[in-house]
Each structure stands twice: as C-alpha cells, then as structure tokens.
TrEMBL record:
NCBIfam families found in the cross-reference section: PRK11650.1
Signal peptide positions on this chain: none
Keyword Kinase carried by entry: no
GO biological process: carbohydrate transport
Entry keyword set: ATP-binding, Nucleotide-binding, Transport
Record PANTHER family: ABC TRANSPORTER ATP-BINDING PROTEIN, MALTODEXTRIN IMPORT ATP-BINDING PROTEIN MSMX
UniProt GO cellular component terms: ATP-binding cassette (ABC) transporter complex, substrate-binding subunit-containing
Protein name, per record: ABC transporter domain-containing protein
Length: 362
C-alpha cells in the first residue's frame, strides 16, 4: 500500500495540445480516489501518466514516497485494469492471472497460491480453466481484476472497468469492487464518467473538465458544496436546479427571483460579502423542495409534468420562467395533483449560490 502524489503534472501532445494542465492531487494510503469527468477531459491520460505508460512534459509523480516520474511501468509497483479488459485470448483465466507472475520468475507454488486467493475473492475458481471467449462480460471483468490483484501492487489503477457491462451487472460489480477495497484496504485510483459510480465508490473524488481539476473533495462535500456550476451540474440526477436571481440586502439578505419572490439568505455562509444587486444563480437540489414547512419558503407551483417512480415522485414546475425538478413524496403529489398545483416549500438553508459570470460558488 502506498500514497500517490501528483504534482503540477502537464501533458502536451504534438507540442501544442495541452491535455493536462498543472494537475496536483494527493491520494492517501488506502484511499479510493475517483477521477470523474466527461468523455475526453483527460482521465485516461492522467491514469496512463501515473502508470508510466506515457511521459509527462511537466511536474512529478511519487508513489510510496518514491519519485517514479522517470521509471518504467514495471518498476512503479502498480497494477492496472483496462477499460477493454485486454485479456490474452488464447490463455485460460488461470493463464491470464499467472502470466505476469511467471514472467517475473516467481516460484510456481507462490503463483498458485496467489491465483487461488484472487480467484476465491472474485468467485471465479470454477472458471479458471476457461478461455475469455467462454466467459461472459462480467466474468471477463473479474478475470481482468484478478490479474491486477495477483500482483499485490501498492496501487491499483482502474480505467472505467464497468463501462462495457449492462446496468444490472454494473451495479453488482460496483458492490464487489467496494467490498474488495474494504477487504484489501489498498490505494485505488479509479476513472469513470458515471457520477453514481463515483459517489458510491469514492472516499475522495477529483472532478475534472478539459484537463483541469474543478474540485477535489469527499462525495458528501461535492454534493452539498459544489465549488462551481460545472460540479453542481455533474453530480446528482436529476441535477441541481438553477434560477437566476439578484442579491437584495435591504431588509435582510435575500435572493430576488425574476418573479420578485424572495429567498432569504441570512444563514448562507458567504465566502465574501456580496454586493447589493449582484447577479447570481441560485442552486436548489430536487430534494430540497418539500411538503413540510421546516422553516422553508412557501410556493404554490403549477405542475408541468410528474413522474411517479414508486419511492418518490419527480415533479416538474416552472419558477420565474425557468424549469425546475422536485423530488416529493408520492402520497403528497397524489393528494394534490387534481388541483394542478402543489403547495411546496424550498429549504433555503440547503441552497448553493454562484456568481452568474464566473459560475463560481459565492
Ligand atoms: N496520443 C494522443 N495524441 C493526441 N491527443 C490525444 C492522444 N491521446 C488522447 N488524446 C486527446 O486527449 C484528450 C483526453 O483524452 P482521454 O484522456 O482519453 O479522455 P477521457 O479518458 O477523459 O475520456 C482527448 O481530447 C483526446 O483526443
Ligand atoms: Mg478514458
């Protein structure tokens, strides 16, 4: 096990395409760090830099306190699981698991023990004599993870390992990977574009966009205190609702919406005192609409559309010409839906505020 320290890493392709821009990140020993961001933002590139599969143009990478910036992948004490699995098609699962160890000249007995150990952990003992073509997608994925496990490396790197699986299998494997981390307590860097995967697996998430970290924080902190609108948009489904407003200081700090309704902000933890009349975006998560007062602000909102999901009902409204989604109790919606509008409260203690120009949290 080991910590990983990424300092001021730059990656430039063809002398002009600046793909990774001055990235710094600390991954503690035993941490499950998820790199989250849209397709093409540079996640795989950064993972490959940590693995040593591609060179960097600036900065340094340390693993377990050792500067590995100029070391070959095989000397970095890492094990990687690729998006494509990259299994040897002509070898059995056992052959795939043991190949790397045999190449290192490990004694046969120890190889057998490690293969057995990993196979039991991943519940693939019965499949060890099959070739990849005789395995399902989920089973191949387990073999690919097993091949990384047997190396007993200090750091595991996963590149979107579940993206080729169907939804049900993905949920199952997600659970397995989480259990695995709990058992092994190893340091993991895991790449995904799926925010649910990130939220459920990570102890810490680094949100990335266009080669720049937007925020590095725990899942809870990212969700409750997004640093900017990109992060606020990326985490949560349905996403955070955004409403244009202006700051009004007279008569107690508040946000005035376009329809002149007021959201009190007396308790909002401003980082810097806002200006009177400053144009802001108010961010409200769907679950911060409620049928209970709880000190919130009352609105009577016409229902545009509603979607009963069983445990909750998503209701779409229009506030000051802007569409919002609310997560409400099914019974409450049922009770009121015939009258076409709902008496709801917005929990103003939970809102986020962003500057309209910079989109940065206030
Ligand atoms: N060998 C390469 N040469 C030039 N550009 C590349 C190369 N590999 C990746 N890129 C570019 O780097 C960017 C980030 O790619 P990648 O790290 O694969 O993104 P992600 O994994 O987040 O989807 C993309 O714009 C991609 O086109
Ligand atoms: Mg990728």
């Amino acid at each position: 096990m080991a910590r990983v320290s990424i300092q001021h890493v730059d990656k430039v392709y063809n002398n002009r395409e600046h793909i990774l821009k001055d990235l710094s990140l600390e991954v503690s020993d035993g941490e499950f760090l998820v790199l989250l961001g849209p397709s093409g933002c540079g996640k795989t590139t950064l993972l490959n830099c940590v693995a040593g599969l591609i060179e960097i143009e600036g900065g340094s990478i340390h693993i377990g306190g050792q500067d590995v910036t100029d070391l070959d992948p095989k000397n970095r004490n890492i094990a990687m699981v690729f998006q494509s699995y990259a299994l040897y098609p002509t070898k059995t699962a056992r052959g795939n698991l043991s190949f790397g160890l045999r190449m290192k000249g490990m004694p046969k007995k120890e190889i057998e023990q490690r293969v057995q150990w990993a196979a039991e952990l991943l519940q693939i003992t019965d499949l060890l004599d099959r070739k990849p073509s005789q395995l399902s997608g989920g089973q191949r994925q387990r073999v690919a993870i097993g091949r990384a496990l047997v190396r007993q490396a200090a750091v595991f790197l996963f590149d979107e390992p579940l993206s080729n699986l169907d939804a049900k299998l993905r949920t199952e494997m997600r659970f397995e990977i989480k259990k695995l981390h709990k058992i092994l307590n190893s340091t993991i860097i895991y790449v995904t574009h799926d925010q649910v995967e990130a939220m459920t697996l990570a102890t810490k998430i680094a949100v990335m966009d266009r080669g720049v970290f937007q925020q590095i924080a725990s899942p809870e902190e990212l969700y409750d205190y997004p640093e900017n609108m990109f992060v606020a948009r990326f985490i949560g489904a349905p996403g955070m609702n955004f409403l244009r407003a202006t700051i009004q200081k007279n008569g107690g700090m508040a946000a005035r919406l376009a329809d002149n309704s007021l959201l009190p902000l007396q308790e909002y933890p401003f980082r810097a005192t806002p200006e009177d009349g400053q144009q802001v975006i108010v961010g409200i998560r769907p679950e911060h609409f409620s049928s209970h007062a709880n000190g919130g602000v009352a609105f009577d909102l016409a229902i545009d559309v509603y979607e009963p999901l069983g445990s909750e009902t998503l209701v779409y409204f229009t506030i000051a010409d802007q569409a919002v989604a609310a997560r409400l109790e099914p019974d409450f919606v049922k009770q009121h839906k015939d009258q076409g509008s709902l008496p709801v409260f917005i929990n103003t203690r939970k809102i986020s505020l962003f500057d309209q120009q910079t989109e940065i949290r206030l």
